């Protein structure tokens, strides 16, 4: 009888220990590697829809630099994170003229905009980096210029200025919900 009691307590302790380890691992993964985010609003249409649930890779920018057209999540304020697309990288001059992106005076294609042109009116109002908050001639080191894909309805670098890298949470590239929208984006 004593062996049965001892065995029952041991089994119970093993289950508690396994659950604590699982919760600990989940906490570490959530804090340092991946986090969920829900797209809130129309600023990334047509690429991302309101209510899309995504995974944010919080680790990627610890081992690599952001690339143009990555979709990133950043702290817009203490209470709110935004999701936008990287357009300008440190050291670059960014301008839009007649709906064409210019990086350092050279036109750059935005393939993610062209493939949805028939479905949406995707027009970017003319601007240059000097006209944005901060009055920069080039994107400063440690900063990014970001825009929403729905250029007519997006609070982005045109209003916020360039975004410091230490405000970047990570890259969002996987929609996992709703099921009919599961896909990698930004590729």
Automatic annotation (TrEMBL):
<dbReference type="InterPro" id="IPR019758">
    <property type="entry name" value="Pept_S26A_signal_pept_1_CS"/>
</dbReference>
<comment type="similarity">
    <text>Belongs to the peptidase S26 family.</text>
</comment>
<keyword id="KW-1133">Transmembrane helix</keyword>
<dbReference type="Pfam" id="PF10502">
    <property type="entry name" value="Peptidase_S26"/>
</dbReference>
<keyword id="KW-0645">Protease</keyword>
<dbReference type="InterPro" id="IPR036286">
    <property type="entry name" value="LexA/Signal_pep-like_sf"/>
</dbReference>
<dbReference type="GO" id="GO:0009003">
    <property type="term" value="F:signal peptidase activity"/>
</dbReference>
<dbReference type="InterPro" id="IPR019533">
    <property type="entry name" value="Peptidase_S26"/>
</dbReference>
<feature type="transmembrane region" description="Helical">
    <location>
        <begin position="20"/>
        <end position="39"/>
    </location>
</feature>
<protein>
    <recommendedName>
        <fullName>Signal peptidase I</fullName>
        <ecNumber>3.4.21.89</ecNumber>
    </recommendedName>
</protein>
<keyword id="KW-0378">Hydrolase</keyword>
<keyword id="KW-0812">Transmembrane</keyword>
<keyword id="KW-0472">Membrane</keyword>
<dbReference type="InterPro" id="IPR000223">
    <property type="entry name" value="Pept_S26A_signal_pept_1"/>
</dbReference>
<feature type="domain" description="Peptidase S26">
    <location>
        <begin position="13"/>
        <end position="177"/>
    </location>
</feature>
<dbReference type="InterPro" id="IPR019757">
    <property type="entry name" value="Pept_S26A_signal_pept_1_Lys-AS"/>
</dbReference>
């Amino acid at each position: 009888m004593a062996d049965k009691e001892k065995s029952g307590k041991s089994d119970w302790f093993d289950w508690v220990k396994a659950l604590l380890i699982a919760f600990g691992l989940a906490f570490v993964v959530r804090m340092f590697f991946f986090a969920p985010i829900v797209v809130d609003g129309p600023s990334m249409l047509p690429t991302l829809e309101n209510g899309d649930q995504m995974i944010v890779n919080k680790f990627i920018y610890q081992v690599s630099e952001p690339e143009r057209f990555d979709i990133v999540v950043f702290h817009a304020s203490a209470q709110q994170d935004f999701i936008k697309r990287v357009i300008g990288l440190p050291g670059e001059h960014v301008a839009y003229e007649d709906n064409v992106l210019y990086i350092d005076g050279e036109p750059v294609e935005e393939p993610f905009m062209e493939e949805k042109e028939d479905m949406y009116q995707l027009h970017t109002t003319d601007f240059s980096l000097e006209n944005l908050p901060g009055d920069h001639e080039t994107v400063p080191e440690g900063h990014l210029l970001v825009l929403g894909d729905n250029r007519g309805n997006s609070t982005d670098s045109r209003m916020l200025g360039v975004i410091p890298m230490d405000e970047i949470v990570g890259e969002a590239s996987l929609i996992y919900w709703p099921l009919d929208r599961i896909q990698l984006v930004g590729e």
